[in-house]
């Protein structure tokens, strides 16, 4: 991956709907080589997917809760069962295995307390769950930030 690839990725992070022509202009290429680079970055898995960011409040999902979950034990069958169950909870936006006092950190988007209660009940119904701690987001300062490509650009040739 060279400097042009990194500039192309940075441009896509700023505007994922930019046309190939617009991207090509931003990275000083013609459209055909730019399209080839994009295709290669997609095939190599550097570009994972394209997505749109929706307004949670306008969709009735304004409450964001970070949920720490501790399991009773760490047997592979228990963790696999927990992770399978979390994958089925559509309001869980992200699930991370973490270090520290808990085993998982979930980001949940819901419509309010009663909506969140249903998610908690689903988690509590799992026999391997020992403890659930919830942190309600009061206000979001930064969300879905772009990856920091500046450091990579500085080192790219």
CATH fold descriptor of the largest domain: Alpha-Beta Plaits
| Arrangement of strands in the largest sheet | 2-3-1-4
CATH superfamily of the largest domain: Lrp/AsnC effector binding domain/regulation of amino acid metabolism (RAM) domain
Q: What is the first-to-last residue Cα distance?
A: 9 Å
Mean pLDDT: 94
Strand content: 15-25%
What is the CATH architecture annotation of the largest domain? 2-Layer Sandwich
Instruction: Tell me about the largest β-sheet.
Output: 4 strands, antiparallel
CATH C-level category of the largest domain = Alpha Beta
Domain tally: 2
Shape descriptor: elongated
Give me the secondary-structure category: alpha+beta
Stretches with pLDDT under 50, minimum 5 residues: none
Radius of gyration: 20 Å
User: Which percent range fits the helix content?
Assistant: 25-40%
Q: What letter string, H or E per element, gives the SSE order?
A: HHHEHEEHEH
How is the topology of this model organized?
Blueprint: H1 3-14, H2 20-26, H3 31-43, E1 63-71, H4 76-87, E2 92-97, E3 104-110, H5 113-124, E4 129-136, H6 150-155
Antiparallel strand pairs: 1-3, 1-4, 2-3
Helix pairs in contact: 2-3
Domain HTH asnC-type: 1-62
Pfam families: AsnC_trans_reg, HTH_24
GO molecular function, one term: sequence-specific DNA binding
């Amino acid at each position: 991956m060279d400097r042009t690839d990194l500039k192309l990725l940075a441009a896509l992070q700023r505007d994922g709907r930019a046309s190939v022509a617009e991207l090509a202009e931003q990275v000083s290429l013609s459209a055909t080589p730019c399209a080839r680079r994009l295709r290669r970055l997609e095939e190599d898995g550097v570009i994972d997917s394209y997505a749109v960011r929706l307004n949670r409040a306008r969709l009735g999902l304004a409450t964001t809760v970070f949920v720490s979950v501790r399991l009773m034990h760490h047997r592979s069958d228990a963790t696999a069962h927990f992770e399978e169950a979390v994958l089925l909870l559509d309001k869980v936006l992200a699930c991370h295995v973490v270090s520290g006092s808990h085993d998982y950190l979930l980001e949940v988007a819901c419509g309010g307390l009663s909506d969140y209660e249903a998610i908690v009940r689903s988690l509590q119904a799992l026999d391997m769950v020992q403890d659930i701690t919830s942190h309600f987001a009061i206000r979001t300062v930064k969300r879905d930030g772009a990856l920091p490509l500046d450091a990579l650009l500085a080192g790219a040739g």
